[in-house]
Amino acid sequence: MEKLENFLKKRQNPILSLILAAVGAVLFAFSVIAAAKPVKADYPAAAGLLTLIAAVCAVIPLISFLIIVVKKTDTVRVFVISAVMLSLITTLVIPINCAPDEWTHYTNAYNYSNKLMGKGAVKNNEPITLRNCDSLFFSHDIGPEKYTEVINGFELFTDDTEEVRIILAEVTSSPFYVYTPQIIAITFGRLIHLGAVPTYYLARLLNIALYILIVAVALKKIPFGKTAMAIIALFPVTLQQTASASTDPFINAMAFLVIALCLELIYNKEKISVRDTVPLIVVSVILAPCKLVYFAIPFITWLIPKDRFDKRSVRIFTKYIVPLFSVASLVFFQLHNILGYTDSQPEVTLISDVPTYSFSFIFTNPKEFILMLLRTVKVFDFFFIESMISSPLGWLQIECSELIAVIITIALAASLIPSDKNELIPDIRRTDRLWSLMIAGGTALLVILSMFSAWTPSDSPIILGVQGRYFLPVLPLIIPVIYSKSLSAPESLKRYALFVAVNISMYTMLNAMCAAVSI
């Protein structure tokens, strides 16, 4: 409170506060005029919801200014407060079943809930048992009709619990524990006859809570680059994933935590014991099977200097057993899918009747494959960056301004400049930078290869299906790659970078809301 009182005594700060309050009012008016007012006549319920979202967003500039710039709240707390506000707004802006692949993940979680309740789980293209009220959310088209459908369909408790059967189109390869928040929410909702909409949103809210908790731990553990990781964790695309019922929040958060724990051992531990390694083993074993392409992240442990270990056995255990456990966990949960990738018989995709490429093409036509990679990068270069940061949102329906991605990229770059005081600036070796870059680049290549074999028709000259959001789990690896003692900036730069990132993410959701009602 003392800092706040001092702030209020300074002439320029009240002026800035008034400016930010005015900005909030303008944003609110803009949103109401651009979104709520045009749909009020035909969709009054949707108009009310959009007005509420705009009103909440209007106060974020002032709140974020107070906690980030004035009170200079630590990064972890800023992240938690900002993530709560922004993710709750996002889950309203992006209606249920409108985030990418959300219905697939929700029904997979429902499948596990059935197994937990003794109803048995099913495989691909088999009927799954759902409550009738839970089977009505197939549409992922965002628009005023969707908002109205969700609002009008809201009932706290329901009698519509008659079981129906629908085809489970796709069973994801992720292990069951990735769906823990959704399984708990769905099972709890079914047991107490919670309505379909509250049950769905409960799954989202538990996902949000788990994501914020894990990322907050990661931010506490990472020895440097806290602001950069917080900005990445608050990207608009990251928020959309976080505020959905998919597995992405869990995977992103666990990847961030693995990277943070590894960097802590490399740069912030004088002597490493086996006890220091146990949390990393647990998190790595959990992360590796979630998606095959992210298995290499724990190999950052190879960068831990030898002089951090008192015993050779501890060094071997930390640097080599951790990645080995990670790979073993991957094989245990994903052996069937790994063997499936070696199948020489390609499948057709959802976008074409033409079979996909097989991995044998890479070895029989290496030159053409390299040309495909180059053409793909040339065609989708900025799209990869934009779709990792801010756009498109919804089921790839809502296009936001490219300027948003540019501004957030600048804020991220500013956060990677060490402060000129009160900050640990580690001695990052060239080998550290190179190895971190190789893991990030190798993971990106695995993502592209997965889309090459699972999504790209064999008559396509470029690789299709790759989106920047798939690169998010390894993006924090840019921290050890870019961080350098040769640069420094005032400590306030990081705070302003975080302030800008929070508010641009908020504006992106307002922008998405306005776009949604006109789609």
Please explain how this structure is put together.
Helix 4 (75-93) packs parallel to helix 9 (226-233), helix 5 crosses helix 7 and helix 9 runs parallel beside helix 19 (492-516). This protein has helices at residues 2-9, 12-39, 44-70, 75-93, 102-116, 144-152, 180-191, 196-221, 226-233, 236-242, 248-267, 274-287, 312-341, 360-364, 366-389, 402-415, 430-454, 478-482, 492-516, and strands spanning 126-131, 163-168, 348-349, 352-355. The chain has a two-stranded antiparallel sheet. It has a two-stranded antiparallel ribbon with strand order 3-4. By secondary structure, it is mainly α. The protein is built from 19 helices and four strands. Helices cover 62% and strands 3% of the residues. A hairpin with a 2-residue loop joins strand 3 and strand 4 (352-355).
Largest sheet: 2 strands, antiparallel
Helical segment tally?
A: 19
Q: Termini, distance in Å? A: 46 Å
Helix share bin: 55-70%
Shape: globular
* Class based on secondary structure composition and strand pairing: mainly alpha
Q: Kindly state the mean pLDDT as a whole number? A: 87
Total number of strands: 4
Poorly predicted regions: none
Q: Kindly estimate the percentage of residues that lie in beta strands according to DSSP.
A: under 5%
N-to-C order of helices and strands:
HHHHHEHEHHHHHHHEEHHHHHH
Strand order of the largest sheet: 1-2
Instruction: Using the CA coordinates, give the radius of gyration.
Output: 24 Å
